[in-house]
Design goal:
Distance between the termini of chain B: 113 Å
Oligomer: heterodimer
Shape of chain B: elongated
Order of helices and strands of chain A: HHHEHEEEEHEEEEEHEE
Largest sheet of chain B: 5 strands, antiparallel
Strand content of chain A: 35-45%
Strand order of the largest sheet of chain A: 1-2-4-5-6-10-11-12
Structural class of chain B: alpha+beta
Number of helices of chain A: 6
Helix content of chain B: 10-25%
Number of strands of chain B: 27
Number of helices of chain B: 6
CATH topology of the largest domain in chain A: Porin
Number of domains of chain B: 4
Largest interface: A-B, 59 and 48 residues
Largest sheet of chain A: 8 strands, antiparallel, barrel
Strand content of chain B: 15-25%
Distance between the termini of chain A: 35 Å
Chain lengths: 289, 573
């Protein structure tokens, strides 16, 4: 039993040891004055932990698994789906007319998006801060209306009209993962803010739409702000999570829900932008590695 | 004593050396013998003795080919032109016979290498789906299953002959494919070298009975002449020809949609017919490749490549321009009526822009007044009034002027085009001309589709498939995908009624019977961008307006750079 308690304590510290090996700043936590001494202790702990790791698994299958060895954690990747409806018809120049709704209706489409964040800076007892880059894709399509329908004749044609939107954004991401790492609470709230642009293209069956020589393609600048929370799935199967970490280097697997305000109003430098932004929810999975 | 022992030892040594060679020779004989047997003409089952197989034919005759494949030549302007190096559809690569090949009477020239002839035998060329080296297959008093591709062997080849050349014609190859038993018993003795090029030769192109490809073997058989006449001897050369002169059936159902200068064509797959390689869509009037304007008269525009362009007159009558830019016209018979579309090869409206009163050259009929068709007035000869409501064809004999055909653009069953109906079916019916023009077809014989099958109108049951002979300029598009069910025709003219039909196409390039024609009319539409701009939307694409050079720099990239710089500074500190 005495051996088990030591193992438990060492296992609890081992995670921090891993971070020592990965990040020099954690060496500072141990104390600059005792750096060499601390290093010796670390080596001893690592060696002992390696020997006793298997026994620890067998003896303490349900205790503090997330406090054992973890691979270095530098990045977070998100893959999500977002019901999305751009506020094209909010353009003041339209004076209340609704060309978008007329062409595509008021239904949301499913936007797919992906984001990768670099956990560049770790803030003790809070979490990480770093830049993130995101990309998405949404497509709206419908049948073009007949210009001059005859009485009793069809009002819509078989020709497709569509609007494709490719949002890109760069954000600063604050991810408060201390709840999970330090207290074992499997929730990671986070916030993002940054700048964005959306490429867009209006097309029909023949290709990019044109009207009076103006091509229906371009981009709109704007801002991106998001708030979300991730639920860490490691708690359901710590053993599998650790295997995933050891084999693939994935520290945590989580599901997340996120609210975003993607404003695409030209960022004060575009006079007549196509308003392809909007607010939306995103649901998906996230991985830190 | 010593000498005897030395001889004895030498004898044993010789035996020791020879024994492996003998064993090797015996083994070689066992291995080679079956191959030799396969390559030789088997004994006749007819009971006709060849007196040991050596009278007339020595049995050593051997025929082979100097080239892996024969040279190809097609009839063009009355003369055969070598097309050996022309690309071929995959099914016909390197050599095969499609319907077009048969129509053009493809000539295959086989350079043959011969050896072992001793003056008692010659070479005959036969075709069939069975083993034509068998005497019974070539007749011998029986109903033959092979047919002759060359005259009876009368040229006795001697050992000095080492090479020969034989021309084989596609129509001869196809002649009895449908019903070898129809080959008259006496005919196996004779070969008419002019038959394939005669008026009856074209009928051979309709001998194939199903749309699946059939392999016809061409045999170059050493035949005994001086004794045991007709018996094969020696080793024949055999070449397999992939023949495919029937295209698969059309899609059983076709629907049309319309858009701005376009039509969308959707069809139901005719089934899992392995002969289908793709589909072709045909329009009447033929569509242009260049995008047309919307709804108004584009008079004087240059027609696009690849076919005639269609334009709309002020009164709604469609006006066609031939490939040569010559004017032709259509006459609208009013709502739901027929339209006369003319492919005018010779006449041109020299008065400048095309108009609704364009002329119809009646060609051989003699009524060629290029200015007598007046809009709103009644034409007085073989011309067409394009004034819309006066669809009157006035000809002394009441016939449709040469180069013209009717198009009925009414919806439903009345939608039709005589050009798109120019289909003949397997086993006869219809008329196909070798020059690709479309002769007035008899009432089209319905064709069963693979998916539907069953009894057809008129009580004719077919296995499916056939051939269409639609002039190529009517092809609106083609898709080389047997699973495709949709094609968009672009470059059409708004306001013009089009008759559209779909055909299946096989891997040999054969075009099958047309589907039931459908009619539709391209119309202007309002897509999202057009509506957005018309309703006041100001977005104009890429310009960063009114912000000077700073704004021209991607603000997005600058912001990203700023964030990265900030983070880097924090890490250093």
């Amino acid at each position: 039993m005495k051996h088990s308690r030591w193992v438990e304590r060492l296992g609890a510290r081992k995670r921090w040891v891993g971070r020592v090996g990965a990040r020099k700043r954690w060496v500072g936590r141990v104390g600059a004055g005792n750096r060499w001494g601390a290093s010796a202790v670390v080596l001893a702990v690592v060696a002992f932990a390696a020997v006793s790791a298997r026994a620890q698994d067998l003896e303490l299958p349900s205790e503090g698994v997330h406090h054992r060895y973890e691979s270095p954690e530098h990045f977070n990747i998100q893959l999500g789906l977002s019901p999305f409806l751009p506020n094209v018809d909010s353009d003041p120049a339209l004076h209340g007319k609704t060309p978008f709704a007329d062409a595509f209706g008021n239904g949301h489409t499913l936007m797919i998006n992906a984001e990768i964040d670099w956990e560049a800076l770790r803030i003790p007892h809070l979490g990480t801060l770093g830049p993130g880059l995101g990309i998405g894709y949404a497509n709206f399509s419908g049948n073009a209306a007949v210009s001059n329908p005859t009485p009793g004749g069809p009002t819509t044609s078989s020709e497709q009209t569509s609007l494709e939107i490719y949002p890109f954004y760069a954000v600063a991401v604050l991810r408060a993962d201390a709840f999970w790492h330090e207290y074992g609470v499997p929730f990671v709230p986070y916030a993002k803010i940054g700048v964005a642009t959306s490429l867009w293209r209006a097309s029909n069956t023949l290709g990019t739409s044109h009207y009076n020589g103006i091509a229906g393609e371009g981009y709109t600048l704007g801002t991106q702000m998001s708030l979300g929370v991730a639920f860490v799935l490691n708690v359901f199967d710590p053993y599998a999570a650790r295997e995933f970490d050891e084999s693939m280097g994935v520290n945590t697997t989580a599901v997340f829900v996120e609210w975003s305000d993607a404003s695409r109003d030209g960022l004060l430098v575009q006079s007549d932008p196509l308003h392809v932004g909007g607010t939306y929810w995103t649901f998906g999975m996230a991985f830190t590695f | 004593m010593g000498e005897r022992r030395a001889r004895y030892a030498a004898g044993r040594e010789m035996i020791r050396r020879v024994r492996p060679l003998a064993a090797f020779a015996a083994l070689g004989a066992i291995v080679v013998a079956p191959g030799v047997a396969r390559a030789q003409i088997p004994p006749s089952s007819s009971g006709v003795s060849s007196s040991g197989g050596m009278t007339g034919g020595s049995g050593t005759e051997n025929v082979s080919s100097a080239l892996p494949n024969p040279n190809r030549a097609l009839l063009q302007n009355g003369q055969y032109v070598d097309v050996t190096n022309n690309p071929r559809p995959l099914n016909l690569n390197p050599t095969g016979v499609s319907f077009s090949d048969c129509e053009q009477d493809l000539k295959l020239t086989f350079p043959i290498v011969v050896s072992g002839f001793n003056g008692g035998s010659g070479i005959e060329v036969w075709a069939g789906t069975t083993d034509c080296t068998q005497f019974d297959a070539r007749g011998n008093g029986q109903v033959p299953t092979c047919w002759r591709l060359s005259p009876q062997a009368q040229q006795l080849l001697d050992p000095t002959t080492t090479s020969m050349s034989f021309d084989v014609y596609a129509r001869d190859v196809m002649r009895y494919l449908g019903a070898p038993s129809a080959n008259p018993t006496a005919d196996y003795l004779h070969y008419d070298s002019t038959w394939h090029s005669g008026p009856q030769g074209e009928s051979a192109c309709r001998e194939q009975q199903s749309d699946a490809a059939v392999t016809v073997n061409v045999f170059f058989v050493p035949i005994q002449v001086s004794a045991s006449v007709g018996q094969a001897t020696g080793t024949a050369y055999q070449y397999a020809l992939n023949t495919d002169t029937v295209a698969p059936p059309p899609p059983p159902s076709v629907t049309l949609g319309f858009g701005d200068t376009l039509l969308t064509v959707n069809w139901v797959s005719p089934g899992n017919d392995p002969d289908i390689a793709g589909f072709a869509v045909w329009t009447d009037p033929p569509g242009a490749s260049a995008a047309g304007g919307g709804g108004s008269c584009n008079c004087g525009s240059t027609p696009g490549a690849g076919g005639a362009s269609s334009y709309v007159g002020d009164d709604g009558a469609a006006i066609s321009v031939g490939d040569d830019g010559a004017a032709s016209s259509t006459s609208s018979g009013g709502e739901g009526g027929s339209t006369l579309v003319c492919e005018d090869a010779g006449a041109s409206d020299s008065s400048g822009p095309l108009d609704a009163a364009a002329d119809v050259d009646s060609g051989a009929a003699g009524a060629t007044d290029a200015s007598d068709a007046q809009a709103g007035g009644g034409p007085t000869d073989g011309s067409v009034d394009a004034a819309g409501d006066a669809a009157t064809i006035i000809a002394s004999d009441g016939a449709v002027p040469p180069g013209c055909h009717y198009v009925n653009v009414a919806s439903g069953a009345a939608c039709s085009s005589s050009v798109l109906s120019s289909t003949f079916v397997v086993g006869g019916g219809g008329t196909v001309t070798a020059d690709g023009s479309v002769a007035p077809a008899p009432a089209p014989t319905p064709v069963a589709t693979t998916g539907e099958g069953g009894e057809l109108e008129g009580g004719v049951t077919l296995s499916g498939g056939g051939i269409s002979a639609i002039p190529p300029q009517y092809k609106g598009g083609e898709v080389d995908d047997r699973t495709a069910t949709q094609l968009t025709l672009t470059g059409l003219t708004n306001g013009v009624n089009y008759v559209v039909a779909v055909t299946s196409v096989d891997g040999s390039g054969n075009v099958g019977p047309v589907s039931t024609p459908q009619c539709a009319q391209p119309q202007p539409v309002d897509d999202f961008w057009k509506t957005y701009k018309q309703e006041g939307g100001g977005a104009s694409g890429c310009a960063l307006e009114g912000a000077g050079p700073v704004a021209q720099m991607p603000v997005f990239g600058a912001a990203v750079a700023a964030i990265l710089a900030l983070l880097r500074r924090r890490r250093r500190s």
